[in-house]
Specification:
heterodimer, A: 166 residues, alpha+beta, 3 helices, globular, B: 52 residues, mainly alpha
Chain lengths: 166, 52
């Protein structure tokens, strides 16, 4: 049976969490305030956070098997973070090694698997011709968010400009 | 070809998100080496054992 690992906040007043798996893999999950992405949206710009998931660098090349308790733990951390329904998370998959497509599929699978119908996830793929890169970007927020409609409109406006530019 | 202001804005969003991610990952990694963090991990390891 899937059992989230115990997790704790790194600092009591921050939105940074840590957990360690049964095979000793050490993860940090951080939500970092980012009030500059939607400057015109007063209702939620100050509640916007970037999501960072960091595996200890020294363990990057360690294969620990397929541990479904990891996404289960990240889902539990999400649940804790989104206790405040007004929070909004923006997220993009790491592009440094060119494996962002695989990461995006994995994150999407995790999200579907642990979706308890409390969160909404909007997705967009952005092609950066100049840098020959591709970004997989998501916005995640609570279905109980009082500014839900405004958030969806802001995301659609952003993606609309992308479609027009393609 | 000259990019429109909107396209620059959308690309700015994606590029900023990616650049910030790398900056925050570096900061987190540094934090993960501190004695306080390592103590936290030790206590979590003990809790995981207890949970089993």
């Amino acid at each position: 049976m899937l059992q989230p690992y115990n997790f704790k906040k790194i600092d009591s007043d921050s939105s940074e969490y840590a957990f360690v798996t049964s095979s000793g893999m050490i993860y940090s999950v951080a939500f970092v305030k980012a009030d500059y992405y939607f400057p015109k949206n007063e209702s939620f710009k100050n509640d916007t956070f970037e999501l960072i998931i960091q595996l200890d660098e020294s363990q990057k090349n360690t294969w620990a098997g397929r541990d479904l308790n990891i996404p289960s733990t990240i889902a539990a951390i999400f649940k804790d973070f989104f206790k405040d329904h007004e929070k909004v998370v923006v997220f993009s998959c790491d592009t440094t090694d060119g494996k962002q497509g695989a990461r995006n599929r994995k994150f999407d699978d995790w999200f579907k698997q642990f979706d308890d119908d409390s969160l909404l996830k909007l997705n967009e793929t952005i092609f950066d011709i100049e840098n020959q890169s591709q970004y997989f970007m998501s916005m995640i927020f609570s279905k109980e968010n009082p500014h839900k409609n405004e958030i969806v409109i802001a995301f659609k406006e952003l993606t609309k400009t992308l479609s027009e530019a393609k | 070809m000259e990019k429109s202001a909107e396209e620059r804005s959308a690309l700015w969003f994606a590029r900023t998100l990616e650049a910030n991610k790398q900056k925050h990952k570096k900061r987190l990694q540094e934090k993960m080496q501190t004695p306080d963090f390592l103590r936290l991990i030790e206590s979590l390891k003990n809790n995981n054992v207890t949970a089993v």
